[in-house]
Every structure is written in C-alpha cells, then in structure tokens.
Amino acid sequence: MSNEQGTGRFAYDGLERIIHERARLSILTSLASHAKGLPFNDLKSMCSLTDGNLSRHMTALAEAGLVEIEKSEKNNRSLTRCRLTEVGRKRFLNYLAVLESVLSDAQTVSAAVPKEGLAPA
Amino acid sequence: MSNEQGTGRFAYDGLERIIHERARLSILTSLASHAKGLPFNDLKSMCSLTDGNLSRHMTALAEAGLVEIEKSEKNNRSLTRCRLTEVGRKRFLNYLAVLESVLSDAQTVSAAVPKEGLAPA
Q1: Structural domain count of chain A
Q2: Radius of gyration over every alpha carbon of chain B, rounded to an integer in angstroms
Q3: Residue contact B35–A114, C-beta within 8 A
Q4: Which residues in chain B land under pLDDT 70?
Q5: pLDDT at residue A1 above 70?
Q6: What ipTM does this complex have?
C-alpha cells in the first residue's frame, strides 16, 4: 500500500473552484470537445442552462481567462460564439488530471467490503 | 459521432451538489477507500481540513444519510469514527459513474486542435 494515511492525501487542491462548479464543468467539457467553439444557444442547450445562468458563468470564466466570447453579426442577426482559450485548455487539462486521481483513489470503493477480519484503518 | 449536439448532452445532472463540493468529495473518497471508516483526526489530516470544516461537512453528509458518525470512549478519551453508509456508498458510486462520463467526454480535449479545415460545430 502507498502512503494512504498521508496528510492531504485526499485534499485534491487541483480541483479549482472556478472549474469544479457543476455548470462550469459542463460548459468547459462542451467547449473542450468542440475545438472551434460553440454558438451560445447550442452551448445553452447542451448544458441545459438558462440564458441568464449561461451568461453569468461565461462571464466568470471569461474574467478568469478560461474562455472567450466572440460577438459577430450575420444578416442582421447577432451571433455569440463561445470558445476555450489556450490558458483555459491547459488549466482544464490539469483539472482533469486531478479528477482522474479522484476516480483512481475511489476505485477501491466497490471492492471495499467491510469485513471484521480486516485491520482497522 | 454520437449525439453530440443533443439537449442536455453535457448537463451531468448526476453530479449531485451534496457530493460534488470539493471538501465533501475529499471526505467521501477517503471514506470510500477505508471500508472500516476513519477516526475523525485521520480524516481531517488526509483531507487537509480544519476541525470546524470537517465537522460542518460531516454533519451535512450525515443529514443526507451518506455517512455516519460514531462516538465512543476509550481510556477516558473520546473517539469519533466516520464511516460511509450503505446508501452513501451507492450514491457515491452513481456519482463516480457520472464523473467517468465527464472524463470520457473530455478525452477529446487534448486531441482537439483547432484547424481551419474542420467543419464548425
């Protein structure tokens, strides 16, 4: 067994709050898998968010430098396109690596059947 | 390609708030990998939480039925042991399955290099 009792062994500091919040995790995963970005309305529907919620989260993510919002006009209709920035891509990859370690740490959960014979932790 | 544009495709409803919050995710992962539970102080150190923070989160998790707190006394010293309940184990496993799908959806992130030749999403 490795250093299971270690201080901070399960602290997961890398799960930064700006990314970890569920709606923002949805947004970033959607954008991460669409390299050219997504129109605001498609993103809204994929993440099951309201206009207001998506706007609020996109603003927070843009202020943190993780995404960019591009507004353009076509045939008199305004178009908003959302995209991951390069910084956002890197920080999201770091976040995903920590998420992987959570899953790997938690792998034992299904195997861990309490038995009286086992030594107490 | 599968139904990538689908409504709610990236909504991840299963990431329930009570589990997803980072400190609580730490606590549950620690407990999940220690079938017989953990003394309060060990858990505190593994999750890098303060007394107050751990207490607060444990109370919330216990109220949701996900963990149980057992107090005993030994040689005049009180001992608090924290443990995942069976309900907690099941709900945590469901949560982990959704987390797996986030990771699998995000796999494309590293591969997804923007190229002008690609069709816009």
Answers
A1: 1
A2: 19
A3: yes
A4: 1-5, 109-121
A5: no
A6: 0.82
